Amino acid sequence: MSAQAESLPSNTPATDLQVGHVGINVTDLDCSVSFYTELLGLELLNRSDDPERAYAFLGIDRQLTITLWQQSRDRFDRSRPGLHHLAFQVSSREQIEELEQRLRARGATVLNGGIVAHSEGSASGGLFFEDPDGSRIEFYAPDVGDRPAPSGSAPACGFF
Asked: What's the pLDDT at 13?
């Protein structure tokens, strides 16, 4: 530990903390790269097809967003500890509606029946779905119109 870190009180917030990227284990790199690039619009920044070290780096405007690692044999198991879901904010309900159409056309698993409010009376909401390995993803916007809240007053993003 650095001397600077040792001098900070334990309750001092890391004000410069930002999420850099999210890494996801996948079973089939080709399938996952296709899903994230074609459906979600991420760009392929780098890739290795080495059977022992297969991975792909995906991003937005050349900025790394998601790393995919082909090192899993089974689908995501929500009963085990780990990433709950990955959420992306977009600016409009129309963007989420377009994404929903693309997901449904591809046969992706869309949860909660479609676009929903985050909670009762909330203008914000989103679309919850699964990637090819069952990892849960959310696209949300500040205003999705009058939509049902699948979990009542509890956060929709917490219970899907």
From this structure: 72
